């Protein structure tokens, strides 16, 4: 819970501090010596980094059988397929493409116990392409809530060359808790049991921690 509070309440992702703080220091330095062009440039960098690494507080209201979106972005596909490696059964996959302007912090769709985290190297093709879920660099987070299992896949894109994951095996996730981020545009896939009904449509814009992505139906 302490991890969840610290990650959720801080207004910017901690990975951005290494860029935000130096940009601010440079801005103040140039302003002190009255160098307007360099001051304006460093200020623009500072504002860009703050905007890009923003981590807005999200506290969407949803029911216990509803899953919230793990990422900001646009729904690119919703399909039922066989996931034979982690879930080892058929599941529904909801894919979200994150543009450079979206919030890049990823959040847990529901509470649960992390069973497995695995990072794999790969290529850096455009994240909206269908086949990149097996070709691009990616990170898998498998977790369980009761008898149900969910799989989150963070996929790097053409610009996104760094995937960050905050959780490890045996960590307890809370609904809406940040579990990682991907820098500079990317994709997140969420695999859910077949009895969950999608509450979104392809091309719909969604927000992490706010938009209800799927609802549990009858088995």
What does this structure look like?
Helix 2 (17-32) packs antiparallel against helix 3 (36-52). The protein has 219 residues and is α+β, with helices and mostly antiparallel strands. Helices cover 21% and strands 37% of the residues. The chain folds into 2 domains: 2-52; 66-216, Glucose Permease (Domain IIA).
Write the layout of secondary structure elements.
Elements: H1 2-9, H2 17-32, H3 36-52, E1 66-68, E2 73-83, E3 89-98, E4 105-107, E5 112-120, H4 132-135, E6 138-145, E7 148-156, E8 163-165, E9 172-173, E10 178-182, E11 186-192, E12 196-198, E13 205-206, E14 212-216
Antiparallel strand pairs: 1-14, 2-3, 2-13, 3-11, 4-10, 5-6, 5-9, 6-7, 7-11, 8-10, 12-14
């Amino acid at each position: 819970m302490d991890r969840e509070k610290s990650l959720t309440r801080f207004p910017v992702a901690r990975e951005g501090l290494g860029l935000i703080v130096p940009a601010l220091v440079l801005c103040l330095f140039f302003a002190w010596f009255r160098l307007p062009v360099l001051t304006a440039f460093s200020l623009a960098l500072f504002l860009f980094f703050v905007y890009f690494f923003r981590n807005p507080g999200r506290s969407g209201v949803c029911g216990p059988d509803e899953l919230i979106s793990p990422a900001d972005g646009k729904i690119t596909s919703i399909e039922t397929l066989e996931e034979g490696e982690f879930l080892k059964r058929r599941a529904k996959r909801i894919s979200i493409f994150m543009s450079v302007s979206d919030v890049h912090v990823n959040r847990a769709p529901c509470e649960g116990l992390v069973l497995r985290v695995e990072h794999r190297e790969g290529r850096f093709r455009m994240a909206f392409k269908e086949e990149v879920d097996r070709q691009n660099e990616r990170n898998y987070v498998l977790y369980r809530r009761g008898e149900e299992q969910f799989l989150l896949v963070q996929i790097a894109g053409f610009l996104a060359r760094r995937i960050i994951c905050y959780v490890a095996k045996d960590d307890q996730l809370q609904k809406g808790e940040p579990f990682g981020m991907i820098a500079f545009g990317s994709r997140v896939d969420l695999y859910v049991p077949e009895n969950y009904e999608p509450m979104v449509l392809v091309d719909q814009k969604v927000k992490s921690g706010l938009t209800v992505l799927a609802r549990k139906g009858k088995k």
